[in-house]
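Subject: Protein record for review, amino acid sequence with backbone structure tokens
Why sent: The fold of this protein is of interest and is recorded here as tokens.
Notation: Tokens come from a learned vocabulary of local backbone shapes, not from coordinates.
Attached in line: The record itself begins immediately under this heading.
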Amino acid sequence: MAAHPRGEPAHTPLLQAEGLWLLAGGRPVLREVGFEVARAEVLVIVGPSGSGKSTLLRHIAGLDRPARGRVRVQGEDLHAGDEDAQQRLRRRQGVMFQSGALWSSLTVGENLMLPMRLFTTLDEQALRARAHALLERVGLADAFALAPAQLSGGMRKRAALARALALDPPLLLLDEPGSGLDPLNAQRLDELVLELRHHLGTAVVMVTHEIRSVRAVADRALYLDDKEMTMTAIGTPEELAGHASSVVRRFFAAGGELGS
């Protein structure tokens, strides 16, 4: 059986969500959510505000445990086994939070090196070299010694994306990466996502409310309905724009602003 460069069989999905029921604050948010993500695929999660997009991403990342159902990473149950086993699976996913979540007390370069210090055996020279290479990849070659406060909003997002790549994960989870950015910087971030997919074979699950971004990067989009509390559509952006459900069609026609 052929295997791709990451090591698992070529047909194995990188991510599988199986019958997920999710709670937030003890209250049901989503039910019976299921999908798969393949290597080098970009899946974008969309839906009105309050539909559970970021909650779903947190469960996929292993930060929260589903009330029912399973999340599998490269075929392994994300919530099975002891804490060491779960952490090993979580490290196969690079997470970029909406705020960027860079440590303000560390330089940009130190932010990138921190996960590598914790989870690799690289020496100091190798750590710095990899951090510089990642910053160069996201267009921040001169930002290594800067403090996060010295970066613009778009630069902080790119630095956070570089940190998400620090452990060379096969899957990236991005929460509203274009939020708060001007159109030009948001477009640059979309282009960077496509570059990572093309050159590294990285799969991406991205939450966004920007339909322009969905059309630019998504292989498929998953629509969450806040009234039904479940996923009601999945397919290419073109398929969702012409979906049988008038709610889904109107969401795309309204540019993602419906219900927000």
